[in-house]
Amino acid sequence: MLAGHLLVKSLIEQGVDTTFGVPGESYLAVLDGLYDVQNQIRLITTRNEGGAAFMAEAYGKLTGKPGICMVTRGPGATNASIGVHTAMQNSTPMILFVGQIGRDMRDREAFQEIDYKAFFGTVAKWVTEIDNPDRIPEIIARAFHTALSGRPGPVVIALPEDMLTSDTQHLPAPCIKITEPAPAPEALLAAVDLLSTAKKPLIVVGGGGWTEAGRDNLISWAEANDLPIATAFRYQDLMDNTNPQFIGEAGIGMWPQMKQRIIDADVIFALNIRFGESFTDGWTLLDVPNAKQKIIHAHISDRELGKIYQPDVAIHASPNQLLKALLKTKLTPNWAAWRKEARAVYEKMLPARPQTGAVDMAAVCDYLRENLDDNAIITNGAGNFAIWAGKHLSYTRNQRYIGPQSGAMGAGLPSAIAAKAVEPNTQVVCFAGDGDFQMNGQELGTSAQEGLYPITLILNNSMYGTIRAHQEGRYADRISGTKIVNPDFVKLAESYGIHGEKVTETNQFAAAFERAKASPTGAIIELIIDEQDITPFRTMDEIKKG
After folding, report:
1. Each residue's pLDDT tens digit, 30-63
2. Minimal CA–CA distance to 129: which of 26, 58, 41, 54?
3. Same domain membership, residue 130 and residue 244
4. Mind giving me the DSSP string for 230-294?
5. Using CB atoms within 10 A of its CB, is residue 105 exposed (0-12), middle (13-18) or buried (19+)?
6. Are residues 369 and 392 in the same domain?
7. Per-residue pLDDT tens for 79-104?
8. Most Cβ neighbours (<10 Å): which of 25, 180, 456, 482?
9. Are 259 and 268 in contact (CB under 8 A)?
10. Residue 159 phi, psi dihedral angles, 5° rounding
């Protein structure tokens, strides 16, 4: 068979049912192979490779299987790089296939030639090229194993055009199986002993590789031991936010009370998180490399242990295997007041302060907390607007949240479309800023073509609000480059056959959202936000006043 067809059969053997991408002449043989298996693999054709890569990343996060993205050489690959970087920072399994120039053209700066190992080497777990068609089964199996094992992440595979049109007699490799590392008994015992000495413990959870059973066991372990659980940046859906054990998100823009809780904790159990700048507030809340707090660090990847902070106890284990083991242990809680105080702060801060503009996003979030479906999926891109979804919604056990830890603008809409591909009958709501939306707004075409219709809330303040906020704080009266002129988002939605509405007053939102829920084409709801409401952050003076 053609090598391109063997590649497709290998994907089917690994359980692939969906792929995202933009067609290219460099991998026509793969597209031809996909033609024969349309009932097994759904090819979702996007409008930009960046949108396709974001969709693959979201698919990977929602399913736990590698999201598959296919793009052409050169510009196609560079466009897709934003999704690869996002998958790496999100710890999401993903495989990017890139059509490549012919093998006989290398190193001549051929049309659209790129050295993919050099280009993607620092943002992917593994980058390779398949030069021999007979090695397709081997390399595909290794790619899936690499994307899924340890800390999940992206793999990039270049496919020379002439290789794909070569003949091969080989057959696909069997579906790979992943073994999760379990905690060493002595490390588990040391962690339990240290945690038992705590009076002010803090459990912070995050990272990739979680299963549904792992999330359930996290709740059970927290309840059994009255533990305060915080989540790392954009991992709020790992823990039921309505559960009394949940005390908030410890990420970018974290409330000052959460920063103080990190400082005051005597034992921090960092469960599958990386010690990045968001949790540590730029590595200032914990002394590097040895924190004053006692640190238990457990991670699915041994490469994260001792990477920045030297832990008192290090555990190399997947979160699922670790929590299964922790449920068999027993702590004697001595921190009830500490946990209750933290929960009370979270409940007080969850409703945002009222905004001054005609559309009050605090009230919008209040409405959404009460009216979102119990299994809704929320997505967002990057910008201050994302604080609303990240800080002022409350995620129940069956709700999911997808946001880029990489701070990538434009991720929200593609992620929402991918979520509808995974769960077509589930309510999907995307939060987008006006600038953020226009990074990938063309994917409304994908939405219309594929019949994948989320509800998108566009917060329109006619500016790049995050940068404006920084400007006004540091360069007052010297505003430069942050004003933007926008299209009529309602008419834009309608041009794609999608329901569109504009909300100019808070009291219009509830009815607009209900109409969006009833619309067979989802909706774009444009929210006109006052320029003064650039950010929902509370000032220190406001916090001190309660």
Report:
1. 999 999 999 999 999 999 999 999 999 999 999 9
2. 26
3. no
4. EEETT-GGGS-TTSTTEEEEESTT--HHHHHHHHH-SEEEEES----HHHHTTTTSS-SSS-SSE
5. middle
6. yes
7. 999 999 999 999 999 999 999 987 77
8. 456
9. no
10. -125, 95
CATH of residue 512's domain is: 3.40.50.970
Query: What's residue 42's pLDDT?
Result: 98
Mean pLDDT, residues 401-427 taken together: 96
Q: Is the pLDDT of residue 147 over 80?
A: yes
CB-CB contact of 365 with 338 (8 Å): no
Q: Which residue range is the domain that position 17 belongs to?
A: 3-164
CB 94 within 8 A of CB 176: no
pLDDT of residue 539: 43
Q: Are residues 342 and 443 in the same domain?
A: no
Same domain, 382 and 459: yes
User: Helices (H), strands (E): how many in the chain?
Assistant: 22, 18
| CATH code of the domain covering residue 236 | 3.40.50.1220
| Pairing assessment for the beta strands 294-299 and 267-271 based on DSSP bridges | parallel
d(CA 441, CA 503): 19
Residue 488, phi then psi, degrees to nearest 5: -80, 105
Q: If you ran DSSP here, which 8-state letter would residue 483 be given?
A: B
10-39 pLDDT, tens digit per residue, is 999 999 999 999 999 999 999 999 999 999
Q: For residue 541, what pLDDT is reported? A: 46
Look at residue 540 in the predicted model and tell me its pLDDT: 38
Asked if 355 and 530 touch (Cβ cutoff 8 Å), the reply is yes
| Residues constituting the chain | 546
pTM higher than 0.90 for the full model?
Answer: yes
Q: Domain check: are 361 and 497 in the same one?
A: yes
